[in-house]
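Quick one, T. Sequence first:
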Amino acid sequence: MTPTQIAALIAAGAFVLLVVLLAIPLVKLGRTLDEATNAIRKAHENSDPLFTGANTTLTHVNTQLERVDGITANAKSVSGNVSALSSLFTATLGGPLVKAAAFSYGVTKALRARRTRREEPAGRHSRRGKRGRK
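Structure tokens:
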């Protein structure tokens, strides 16, 4: 064997050793990719019930929101009716009620003034004059 053939055999052996050394990480990488594929598949299978449950929950939430919208609309209607009723009450009874209260206050004040005039002694009344009265 010539030295060129021996060098070629050494180079071929080194190349085989390099291929073997690179094959080990490639095989491990293939196993890792297989495990990742299995994990993704399992996650996909387990996500279907999760999404189904989420859809059911959202359906119930939407139903409850529709009910709340109805309740809000009814409350708005009731508050409008109460506002109209209070306006009607104020317009119908407010004026006469204020007049009756003013009349009652005036009568009460007049009666008190009359009582105090009766109870005052005669001498005190003459000293007071018109300016002292309020």
